[in-house]
Hints:
Radius of gyration: 37 Å
Helix content: 40-55%
Order of helices and strands: HHHHHEEEEEEHHEEEHHH
Number of strands: 9
Largest sheet: 5 strands, mixed
Distance between the termini: 76 Å
Shape: elongated
Structural class: alpha/beta
Strand order of the largest sheet: 1-2-3-7-9
Amino acid sequence: MQYSESACLLIAGQISRFKQHQHLPSYQDAVKSYGRHCQQPVPPQPREYFAAPSQATVAQQAVTTQVTAPAVGSPVLLPKAEPSRLSSVSQQLLWLVAALFVFFLFRLLFQTPWGMSRSEYLGFIAERQLAKLLSNRLSDDYRHYHNVILKTAQGDLTEIDHLLVSPFGIFVIEVKNYQGWIFGGQHHAHWVVQHYRRKNQFPSPIRQNYKHTEAVAHFFEIDSTIKTEKIFSIIAFSDRAEFKTAMPDNVLHIEDVGRYIEKISAFGRRISDESLLRYRSRLNLLIPQAEELRKQHKLQLQGQELLRELNQRNG
Length: 315
């Protein structure tokens, strides 16, 4: 049986729509139907809407009515309508659209762009917020570097969120995007974040950033006796955090970082032009190695995580 021209046009449209997804049943059914029933499509038959039926047509209808009329009291059995191929294709298409909608809704609710975890994505947002603030507030005297990976004196790698090199000092900034109440202190090895009834410990960011400042001093070959005069540690929390214990001056919210740097810079120049040129040149030389250093740092973190898991099992 050959389909009408209009039906074949619809099937051809279905084939074109799913051409890039030939593994789907919608595409395969449409190709089969077109090959079987659209080789010689039936052209539309014009009909006069107001033409009176002929006597032969009326007689034929009367005979058909007499033959098929059921007996009185007997149940009337209606003819079964054969399922339409087009309706089957439409249902499959609707199911596909619904499945895609649920899939993308799930990604929106439970996942983040670029394959990041939720914590990584929140950290990325906080770092970008700080970068924008520093760019708008500070002058060109402050050369800004972010996500810098340096080797420590012990030979391992550490990543610095933000590094500012200026005549007024070198500022090493660690960004945290925790939500909730923050409890901590200068000499505490672990701090606590509380969000409603949930409490979690995290390593002291002061100690974490101390390692970063040591790596910067090692990289720039700054003597430890003058390190504190040139390198300054800053811990920047997002506005989602609320401090519940007294914090050191260098632990603050992101929006206060610019003012804190300007306050330190007001004491005047600490680094000579010659040293500035040397520091910036060394950082620029790291750019071609950035991708390889990032891979090594990732492997190092994975190894540390595996070691912690083994220690927990054996402990």
